[in-house]
Amino acid sequence: MTNYQNIVVLTGAGISAESGLSTFRGDDGLWENHRLEDVATPEAFRRDPELVHRFYNMRRANLGTVRPNPAHKALARLEQEHDGEVLVITQNIDDLHERGGSRNILHMHGELLKVHCRSCAEVFDWSGDIDETVECPDCGVIPSLRPHIVWFGEMPFCMYEIDEALRSCDLFVSIGTSGNVYPAAGFVAQVSAMGRARSIELNLEPSEGVSLFNEARQGPASKLVPEFVERLLAGEA
Ligand code: APR
After folding, report:
1. Known catalytic residue at 109
2. Which one of 95, 155, 203, 224 has the largest count of C-beta atoms within 10 Å of its C-beta?
3. What is the largest CA-CA distance in the chain?
């Protein structure tokens, strides 16, 4: 039995780091071997679609080699055992929360295992490669498909549901995100301004927004998150 009703958990690349997926701004940062502007913007896709397809095809194929870690599994346990709401809002495009057992997930930056058609906007589950020769399964246009991922300068997904969830939560937990990229980096300020929720950051190092949280703990997610969930479910957090 926890002391809360509606729990919102924001996750970033740090929660998947111990599963072997690179973060964005660490030393092994995912962008290291690709300039951000070359792969994660609409302009990059217009300029060199095949380079962008190759970048995401590589990341999509790599997903099969990684597994959820104890942090993903602990959040799934929280969702199963907490008798109120638990929503995971993730900036990650991997499927490790799903494979870890969570069900109530919003992928605000999209998903590697989805593509959408630039012509008819239909979204498809897609685990293989795409390129500019693949036709849309629905409207048949070629070229048509692009990663169903939010690039810099594009509007994140699910912002209405996210706003509703932030308004109604009484516990906001941020895990594995540097607080560099908005709007996610602004969620803690939004929750604090409403004055009804407690906010906690669990991160390897203090994020940009650490001072905005009621509480912050540093350490690896695979250690911190299971411990935190254990205490939360015992009514001790
Ligand atoms: N456990 C907990 N936290 C970790 C771990 C770990 N094992 N390893 C790294 N971290 C922390 C880092 O200290 C850092 O604060 O995770 C955070 C990762 O930050 P970023 O690399 O900036 O990733 P993220 O915050 O998810 O980036 C947000 O930026 O590039 C865009 O769209 C991309 O979704 C991404 C967004």
Report:
1. yes
2. 203
3. 56
Query: Ligand 1, residues 203, 205, 217: which to mutate, most atoms within 8 A of Cβ?
Result: 203
User: Could you identify the atom of ligand 1 that is nearest to the CA of residue 93?
Assistant: 34
Closest CA to 133 of 55, 50, 57, 60: 50
Give residue 124's identity as a one-letter amino acid code: F
Strand runs (DSSP E) across the chain, as ranges?
Answer: 6-11, 85-90, 105-107, 110-117, 123-125, 145-149, 171-175, 198-203, 215-218
Helix (H) or strand (E) holding 223: helix 221-233
Tens of pLDDT, residue by residue over 114-156, are: 999 999 999 999 999 999 999 999 999 999 999 999 999 999 9
The model's confidence at residue 225, banded by pLDDT at 50, 70 and 90, is very high
At which residue do the structure tokens 């060199």 appear?
Answer: 48
CA-proximal residue: ligand 1, atom 16 (nearest): 14
165: exposed, middle or buried (C-beta count within 10 Å: 0-12, 13-18, 19+)? Answer: buried
Residue whose token pair is 């995100």:
177
